[in-house]
Write a structure and sequence with these properties.
6-stranded mixed β-sheet, 8 helices, 2 domains, about 240 residues, globular
């Protein structure tokens, strides 16, 4: 349908009268609704987080410090999810935790409601609720990943929180006990094992050295363990009961 000259003029005038939405800046204090409105108005911003009502816009990501470990971490979690029907994962998805916190975790695993979890996909496509496990690759963001964000995740009941510290070359796996995170120690073989997701095993030294083959080889031992088989059977039963 052709647009009249008068209609084009009205549209042009409306555009000129629109007030531009300012971009998100580090340190802005916003409500979650304000944060989402501004974020949506600036598609050029690829990642921004709201932590305790404060905006954080990460620096550009470098390959060695972020891209490569992120890729390997996703490969590890994705392989576990593929072998564990009912467990879902996500990569850098917006997560609505509460009214002052909307992070974009580098990776996470969760159980949907039909499997006994509390995380769901909301009407607008965002994740809502508390995932069972969150992983962050920390280089420039290490300060708030280990402080503000850590407190937020603990307060919201995230059972396990993994932080890959790129510059320190260290992997910390926190387990929530009585509302407080405690660092989990590796076993005698140097393997860290999830308590919330049986069979999710990690060889941190291999992850730090970029040895993805050894990371996945260790995971396969976890997937072949009796506790993983028991977990999968329990998930299958829950999903059947939820139908």
């Amino acid at each position: 349908m052709a647009v009249s000259t008068v209609e084009r003029s009205k549209r042009s005038l409306a555009t000129e009268n629109e007030t531009p939405v300012p971009p998100l800046n580090n340190g802005d204090r916003l409500t979650r609704a304000e944060f989402e409105r501004i974020y949506a108005a600036h598609p050029e911003i690829k990642k921004a987080e709201l932590i305790e009502g404060v905006v954080y816009v990460p620096s550009p990501a470098r390959h060695r410090e972020h891209g490569k470990p992120h890729f390997h971490s996703i490969s590890w979690l994705g392989t576990y999810s593929a072998a564990t029907p009912g467990v879902e994962g996500s990569d850098t998805a917006t997560l609505r935790l509460d009214f002052e916190n909307e992070p974009q975790p580098d990776a996470l695993l969760f159980l949907p409601p039909e499997c006994g979890g509390t995380t769901r996909v909301g009407d607008e496509g965002y994740l809502e609720g508390t995932p069972e496990l969150i992983l962050e690759v920390s280089a420039s963001s290490a300060s708030y990943d280990l402080n503000q964000k850590k407190r937020v995740y603990a307060r919201n009941g995230v059972a396990e929180y993994i932080v890959y510290l790129a510059y320190e070359q260290r992997v910390i796996w926190y387990v929530l006990r009585d509302g407080v995170y405690e660092e989990q120690q590796a076993d005698d073989d140097g393997v860290l094992k999830s308590r919330r997701f049986p069979g999710l095993w990690l060889l941190p030294d291999a992850l730090l050295s970029g040895d993805l083959h050894s990371v996945l080889e260790s995971l396969q031992h976890g997937i072949a363990s009796p506790e993983h088989k028991t977990f999968c059977a329990a998930l299958t039963l829950r999903r059947e009961e939820a139908k």
